Amino acid sequence: MKLIIRNYAKVLLVLIAMLGVVSCQDEETIRDRLLGRTWVGDLGFSDRGNALESGLTFQSNGFGMDKQYYYNSLLEGYYEMPFRWMLNGNDLRLDYGEDRYGESLMLELKNVYIDNGVLSGILYVNYKYYDNVELVME
Q1: What is d(CA 71, CA 51) in angstroms, rounded to the nearest whole number?
Q2: Quick one: average pLDDT of 35-52?
Q3: In whole angstroms, what is the distance from residue 44 CA to residue 130 CA?
Q4: What SS3 class is residue 45?
Q5: Could you give the 3-state DSSP secondary structure of residue 17?
């Protein structure tokens, strides 16, 4: 009986170790997967009550563009919002600077993970928890 329990314990430890290796991506891997692509999804933006969908494009110089389209609507047009991005481990910071009212906007995606064309993370807006989000590679 002790042998069986020991074997289960070894298998359990190996599975936990594998999960730790699989669930984290290093900064270089995330950076390589971000660049040269557009990531589309809901980051909580809206225009007069109409939800906007963001399309984030990352440039290698640390800047990017957020093209925001009306979500599930036939309305034409979009907004462009430039941002500066920084990656620290698997945390991604998007600094949009100040809006026309002088208020700054900072988005943080914590625990970023990219797999099969989906970027997932925990979204914070101006350092306050917002929601878990997923962006799809376009």
Answers
A1: 5
A2: 91
A3: 8
A4: coil
A5: helix
Distance set, CA 39 to CA 31, 49, 64, 125 (Å): 13, 23, 11, 18
Question: Do residues 70 and 50 touch, judged by C-beta distance below 8 A?
Answer: yes
- Report pLDDT digits (tens) over 61-113: 999 999 999 876 655 668 899 999 999 999 999 999 998 789 999 999 999 99
> What is the distance between the alpha carbons of residues 71 and 45, in angstroms, rounded to a whole number?
10
Among 110, 131, 103, smallest CA distance to 41 is for 131
Backbone phi, psi, residue 11, to 5°: -65, -45
- Segment holding 37, helix H or strand E: none
Q: Name the strand (E) or helix (H) holding 137.
A: strand 128-137
Residue percentage of the chain with pLDDT more than 70: 79
Task: Give the predicted TM-score (pTM) of the model.
Answer: 0.78
Q: Contact 43/105 with Cβ under 8 angstroms? A: no
User: 16 by DSSP, 3-state: which?
Assistant: helix
SS3 58: strand
